[in-house]
């Protein structure tokens, strides 16, 4: 298969190498026709690798991978050309990251509030800890899964309160990861929908998230 | 420990039973002092279980669990009383669910757009499939984790395109779950931030999500 890659960063190189390792041809595209980064990658990547402009890569690919920095994404797609992408699979690996407040980044698009933050506003003197919201009630206590225990992510502004809730979760059979302040509920509530959507689609309700670590 | 539960639904009962099973005392609170659901639960749950109003449960608990339907949450906290919650841990298990468009629900708060949807708007003729955005580039191809393979969630509007991307992901060593249309990017992009936040906090970058299933 012919793969076009839009972007010369680490993601583009990693996926480019991945496609090459599976026998595909890969053209890496960048803003300039003669990108040093793309040329260096082609040199190391071998005969099935090539480079060109965004438009070249988009025209080349049967599947096109979008792996640009967020702030360059709209322009990269413009340069790639709507007709070069028409009808093709465009694998969007990007995230709309806002680094304006430093590390870690926040989402620049559509992730602006959460129920957890509302609850903290409604109960301002309480030490709110978001927990148990990413799994169905049948699995909240003694969750038993192959490959478990699953992971409960929690969020809250008070470290001692999170420590106490972690002890409760441990007693209930969970491993716990502290996702940050109560605004991290913005990250956990979408997991509820992902959990529910999978249940609706599969007709099963026996699933839970885990963060694999090594 | 004394636990107050705000709400008499399945979550309140499941967690109430969980706390009782670990030897704690539990008071279940509801809008009416004489809730039939709470009374039935107390009858089945034994001597360490009791029931009362939201205010009774909040006053009773050293730890208070919030397990109301979203539309009743603000009022439940008002009825519980700010002073009864002051300084206490409030475990927020709620999700701000909007069922107005049927099942599955959407988030009613703060989850209104995504990079994936923007990309689909910028490349309207392409078959955009969100993928590879929830893990670092070092693990995008041949991800090796204890308990793996990890799960890649994907989103997009074209079923055939998602099938092709699933084949790519399988070849790269992933198990794949189709999270829905491109608007499901709203659920996947927060996972990127959760992934990055854990990396920043732990100083490690060798982790990936998995949906445990049985």
Taking all residues together, what is the mean pLDDT of chain A?
97
Shape of chain A: elongated
How much is the radius of gyration of chain A in Å? 22 Å
- Biggest sheet of chain A, strands in spatial order? 3-2-1-4-5
Kindly identify the CATH topology of the largest domain in chain A: Rossmann fold
Kindly state the percentage of residues in helix of chain A.
25-40%
| Element-level helix/strand string of chain A | EHEHEHEHHEEEHEEHEHE
Largest interface: A-B, 112 and 112 residues
Q: Enumerate the spans of chain A where pLDDT stays under 50 for 5 or more consecutive residues.
A: none
- Biggest beta sheet attributes of chain A: 5 strands, parallel
Protein described:
- 2 copies of one chain form a homodimer.
- Chain A is α/β, with parallel strands linked by helices.
- Chain A folds into 2 domains: 2-98, Rossmann fold (3-Layer(aba) Sandwich); 113-202, NAD(P)-binding Rossmann-like Domain (Rossmann fold, 3-Layer(aba) Sandwich).
- Chain A has 8 helices and 11 strands.
- Chain A has helices at residues 10-21, 36-45, 54-60, 70-80, 82-85, 115-122, 159-172, 185-202; strands at residues 2-6, 25-30, 49-53, 63-66, 89-92, 97-98, 106-107, 127-130, 151-156, 175-178, 207-213.
- In chain A, the strands form 3 sheets. A 5-stranded parallel β-sheet of chain A has the order 3-2-1-4-5, sandwiched between helices. A 3-stranded mixed β-sheet of chain A has the order 8-9-10.
- In chain A, helix 3 (54-60) crosses helix 4 (70-80).
- The longest helix of chain A is centred in the last third of the chain and has 18 residues, at 185-202.
- The relative contact order of chain A is 0.11.
- Chains A and B meet through helix 1, strand 4, helix 4, helix 5 and strand 5 of A and helix 1, strand 4, helix 4, helix 5 and strand 5 of B.
């Amino acid at each position: 298969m012919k793969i076009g890659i839009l972007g010369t960063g680490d993601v583009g190189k990693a996926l480019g190498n991945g496609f090459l390792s599976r026998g595909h041809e890969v053209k890496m595209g960048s803003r300039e026709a003669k990108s040093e980064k793309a040329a260096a990658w082609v040199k190391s990547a071998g005969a099935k690798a090539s480079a060109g402009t965004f438009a070249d890569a988009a025209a080349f690919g049967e599947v096109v991978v979008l792996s640009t920095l967020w702030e360059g994404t709209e322009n990269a797609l413009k340069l790639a050309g709507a007709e070069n992408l028409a009808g093709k699979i465009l694998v969007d690996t990007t995230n709309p990251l806002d680094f304006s407040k430093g590390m870690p980044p926040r989402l620049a698009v559509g992730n602006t509030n959460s129920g957890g933050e509302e609850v903290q506003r409604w109960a301002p003197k309480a030490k709110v800890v978001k927990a148990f919201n990413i799994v169905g009630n049948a699995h909240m206590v003694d969750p038993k899964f192959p490959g478990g225990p699953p992971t409960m992510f929690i969020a809250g502004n008070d470290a001692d309160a999170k420590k106490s809730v972690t002890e409760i979760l441990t007693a209930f059979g969970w491993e716990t990861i502290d996702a940050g302040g109560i605004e991290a509920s913005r990250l956990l509530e979408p997991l509820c929908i992902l959990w529910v959507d999978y249940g609706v689609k599969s007709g099963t309700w026996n699933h839970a998230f885990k963060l694999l670590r090594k």
